[in-house]
Design goal:
92 residues, single chain, 5 helices, mainly alpha, 0% strand
């Protein structure tokens, strides 16, 4: 009986993106060739998402959309700043 090593999510993600050294990728190919269904399904899912994720990094929302989002979701100040302002308001 041969015990095969399963790889981490990070390793499979790099594999699906074509990253990593050739020796490591070869070991991963070999693991898949043993018929590991769980890893095979996981890699297939990652490979379906890889092109979507790659194109997402190139997306730039229109300026008007960014401005609307900034109005709808104003940046929050830290709790420390908010407390300082509240204390200053009460003290005055």
């Amino acid at each position: 009986m041969t015990i095969t090593r399963h790889f981490s999510v990070q390793e499979w993600t790099d594999f699906a993106r074509g990253l990593g050294d050739e020796a490591h990728r070869s070991a991963m190919h070999q693991h898949l060739s043993t018929g590991c269904a769980a890893c095979g399904e996981f890699v297939a899912t990652l490979q379906r998402f890889a092109p979507i994720v790659a194109s997402e990094a190139q997306y730039e929302p229109p300026d008007q959309v960014v401005r609307r989002a900034e109005v709808l979701f104003p940046r929050r100040t830290s709790n420390a700043v908010a407390r300082t302002r509240a204390v200053a308001k009460v003290a005055s």
